Amino acid sequence: MYAQQIKTGARRLKSLAEMEPQERAFQEHVDAGSKIEPKDWMPDGYRKTLIRQISQHAHSEIVGQLPEANWISRAPTLERKAILLAKVQDEAGHGLYLYCAAETLGISRDQMLEQLHNGQAKYSSIFNYPTLTWADVGMIGWLVDGAAIMNQVPLQRCSYGPYSRAMVRVCKEESFHQRQGYDSLIKLCRHGTAAQKEMAQDALNRWWWPALMMFGPPDGESVHSAQSMAWKIKQNTNDELRQKFVDQTVPQADYLGLEVPDPDLRWNDARGSYDFGEIDWEEFHRVLGGDGPCNRQRLEDRVRAWEDGAWFRDGLMAHANKKADQKSLGRADAA
Amino acid sequence: MMSEWPLWEIFIRGQHGGSHRHVGSLHAPDAEKAILNARDVYTRRNEGVSIWAVRAGDITASAPGDKGPLFEPSNSKVYRHPTFFDIPDDVGAM
Ligand SMILES: [Fe+2]
Ligand SMILES: [Fe+2]
């Protein structure tokens, strides 16, 4: 998802009986559905897992602006441009809510950015694919934000208070993102020319599988997934969410008259769900590991934006310090 | 990397009266910029008519460990709630 393959440091799940009193009290608190707040005691693994997950989620929101930003100056109408600008601005906001939530766990903003810029921290694999045509912008709203919603709705119930509250804000804004994308695809597919529809089909062909990869590999026997679930950081398995996404999205593709690029896709009456084909996990690992079509460009753009903004950040801080000094000098004079 | 901008806690009062409520935090070099940033980060959909920005370091918070001594005494004072008292129906609305 926006946070993929988060390690928890756990080798196996501890039972309540094996825990020291402090940890047992913590786990019982979580089991009861209560929230953990920044100053509460928490196991080291819980803290580290959350820092990893929330910072990766924040980085995804921030890097996620780049593929769409490519089209702000190229949007087909002024209205579409204004909508896209508002959507991308929301994503910046999501990144900021999430960085703040992570900071309550004792990591600084600068540390997180440093980890992003030196490649130590990851962000979602999906943002390493290029946006070649205007239809890609619609596809991102419909599929990428759609998949993000699937994942973020249950995160509102996450056991960590600041993360769950940030997710409540994010979810309120996310539905607009998906709808504006689908709306622009309706225009292309149902009111557009044959060439425009073809452009949308081409975009779906390229985005469908990467969108399914967003949910991450099957959890299987993963101890990290089990631990995250015991801590109520994670509520559903990757496969559960992916299935839900496919079931919701296929009829929407039908409405657009687009064909999902999966020869194995078919409705399974017995399961009441769609069966779908094998995902290329090798591609996923390659892209997450830094070798997707746009990884280098994305990171370069981020680092350049940070470095180019340094004079501005430093200048404002210097100005603020000067004003604060003058104020305290003035006060000393008056005394 | 020079010094990170300080952290501010942001409180917003919404359209329909009520008190300012904590909505989150952000970084800004000074109070003036904190208000401007809060406008962009927390009121993109008309969520507020007034913003307070407070330096995070200036907030004193109660410790989680003090929850018992601070809040438990009020548990036993059930007579602070109106439902503690049975008023006969004949008296009418009260
Ligand atoms: Fe977002
Ligand atoms: Fe979004």
Provide an overview of this structure.
The complex is a heterodimer of chains A (335) and B (94). Chain A is mostly helical. In chain A, 66% of the residues lie in helices and 2% in strands. Chain A has 13 helices and two strands. In chain A, strands 1-2 form a two-stranded antiparallel ribbon. In chain A, strand 1 and strand 2 form a beta hairpin. Chain A starts with 20 loop residues before the first helix and ends with a helix. Chain B has two helices and three strands. In chain B, a hairpin with a 7-residue loop joins strand 1 and strand 2. The radius of gyration of chain B is 21 Å and the shape is elongated. Chain B starts with 6 loop residues before the first strand and ends in a 23-residue tail after the last helix. The relative contact order of chain B is 0.18. Chains A and B meet through helix 4, helix 5, helix 7 and helix 13 of A and strand 2 and helix 1 of B. The site of one fe (ii) ion (FE2) has 4 residues of chain A, from helix 4.
- How many DSSP helices of chain B? 2
Strands of the biggest beta sheet of chain A: in what spatial order? 1-2
Q: Which pair of chains forms the biggest interface, and how many residues does each contribute?
A: A-B, 29 and 20 residues
H/E element order of chain B: EEHEH
Distance between the termini of chain A: 59 Å
How large a portion of the residues of chain B is in β-strands, by DSSP E?
A: 15-25%
Q: What fraction of the residues of chain A are assigned to beta strands by DSSP? A: under 5%
Class derived from helix and strand content of chain A: mainly alpha
What's the helix-strand series of chain A?
HHHHHHHHHHEEHHH
Q: What structural class do you assign from the helix and strand content of chain B? A: alpha+beta
Uncertain runs of chain A with pLDDT below 50, 5 residues or more? none
Specify the number of helices of chain A: 13
Strands of the largest sheet of chain B, in order across it?
A: 2-1-3
Largest sheet report of chain B: 3 strands, antiparallel
